[in-house]
Amino acid sequence: MTTRHRGLTEPAADAAIDAACRNLRLPTLRGQFSELADAAARDQMTYRGFLAELLMAECDDRNRRRSERRIKAAGFPRDKALRTFDFEANPNIDPAAIHTLATCEWVKKGLPLCLIGDSGTGKSHLLIALGTEAAMAGFRVKYVLATKLVNELVEAADDKLLTKTIARYGRVDLLCIDELGYMELDRRGAELLFQVLTEREEKNSMAIASNESFSSWTKTFTDPRLCAAIVDRLTFGGNIIETGTDSYRLAQTRARTEQRSVG
To answer: Which end of the chain is more exposed for a tag (fewer CB within 10 A), N or C?
Structure first.
């Protein structure tokens, strides 16, 4: 039977609420209770309405903290958001297609995403931004540079930890691989990367950003058959976004330089 405490003074009630919130690990309710209670009194809220406000505030803050933890765990090198992407600067990219991807249905279905284009066309920005959207939607995300991933796999193989490492990369809901195609991979490195892609195929999503078109990937994966198999893993049933060849980052730098010279 629940014990009811009647006749508590306001200071005693505040102390009891503080202690209960600590015990129940409700930091948001503990921090906002007094403010919400005053607002409830002013607005003449019902007891049920006030309770709902308290619980929703706690839930909202917990969801925010979870999102922050998932974003931090993803290991993004910098903050990039879709709201800061300049679609006007790169007309090759369809805003509607990107905003559809931001719903994360493709992550839910375990489909791949490829962002292909030259340096400075927004590939990494979109890769990080879409990865961030996935983390905020509750998915486990991991970002890694292609060369770092391959080096880690080679070291894991040498230390007889390859199975464990591949399983770790296989568990996340979305694996974001950046700068694929910038460096040539030897056969061993390419085969190890292929094992990661195979582990995730049709189960969990992958998103890659590459400065090379698929037809040029033989420069990165020198074995033609292995190259074809990797392209197949990364494109089957997925989305391909081509960001073009004109660097808007370079264009912006030139524009700033011209403005300074005119001024």
So the answer is: N
Q: Kindly calculate the radius of gyration of the chain based on its CA atoms and give it in whole angstroms.
A: 25
Higher pLDDT, 221 or 125: 125
Instruction: Indicate the burial class of 173 (C-beta count within 10 angstroms; 0-12, 13-18, 19 or more).
Output: buried
Cβ–Cβ < 8 Å for 125, 78: no
* HSE-CB for 96 with a 13 A CA cutoff: 0
Residues sharing a CB contact under 8 Å with residue 242, sequence separation 6 or more, in sequence order: 92, 116, 117
| Helical pair 187-200 and 224-235, crossing angle rounded to 10 deg | 30
Helix (H) or strand (E) holding 113: strand 113-117
Distance CA 69, CA 65 (A): 6
Q: What are the structure tokens assigned to 140, written together?
A: 């486990």
Average pLDDT over residues 217-231: 86
Q: Beta-carbon neighbour count of residue 187 at 10 Å?
A: 11
